[in-house]
Amino acid sequence: MDAVFWIVLGVVLAVAEIFTATLFLIMFAVGAFAAAGAAALGAPVAVQAVVFAAVSALTVLAARPVIQRHKQSAMESGDTAFGIEAIEGSTALVLEQVDSDKGMVKIDGEVWSARAYDATQVLVPGERVQVIQVKGAVALVWRDVATPAELPEAER
């Protein structure tokens, strides 16, 4: 009966890992499966718990630094950025006034909700801005890209 408990716990943790994608819960799932093995061999519950804790801890200690070392952004690895990485740092056009509460911008042909990264900035329609960060479906933008009205005549 104890082995079934540990197997169910391992499966639940492995399935939960699918939704978190952190590669953290899977390490506890490995510990649960090891404890299931100990239970199948007839170990008492206290030994099963120690096996679970020890294998989980060893897995975290061994695997986590390796995962962190190999985790790179597309910019660091030289790959083509996609998703939010591709949007952050890009230029956007203000469609509706952007301030600390609301606004709309167009980024690469897509309309996004936007907020001013600096709460004191108010960005007017037609202004070009830079996307500093994306939080959920809201782009945080900053006025640091010269708009055509601000450019000298020779650069327009």
UniProtKB/TrEMBL annotation:
<dbReference type="InterPro" id="IPR002810">
    <property type="entry name" value="NfeD-like_C"/>
</dbReference>
<keyword id="KW-0812">Transmembrane</keyword>
<dbReference type="InterPro" id="IPR012340">
    <property type="entry name" value="NA-bd_OB-fold"/>
</dbReference>
<keyword id="KW-1133">Transmembrane helix</keyword>
<feature type="transmembrane region" description="Helical">
    <location>
        <begin position="7"/>
        <end position="35"/>
    </location>
</feature>
<feature type="domain" description="NfeD-like C-terminal">
    <location>
        <begin position="85"/>
        <end position="143"/>
    </location>
</feature>
<protein>
    <submittedName>
        <fullName>Activity regulator of membrane protease YbbK</fullName>
    </submittedName>
</protein>
<keyword id="KW-0378">Hydrolase</keyword>
<feature type="transmembrane region" description="Helical">
    <location>
        <begin position="41"/>
        <end position="63"/>
    </location>
</feature>
<keyword id="KW-0472">Membrane</keyword>
<keyword id="KW-0645">Protease</keyword>
<dbReference type="InterPro" id="IPR052165">
    <property type="entry name" value="Membrane_assoc_protease"/>
</dbReference>
<dbReference type="GO" id="GO:0006508">
    <property type="term" value="P:proteolysis"/>
</dbReference>
<dbReference type="GO" id="GO:0005886">
    <property type="term" value="C:plasma membrane"/>
</dbReference>
<dbReference type="Pfam" id="PF01957">
    <property type="entry name" value="NfeD"/>
</dbReference>
<dbReference type="GO" id="GO:0008233">
    <property type="term" value="F:peptidase activity"/>
</dbReference>
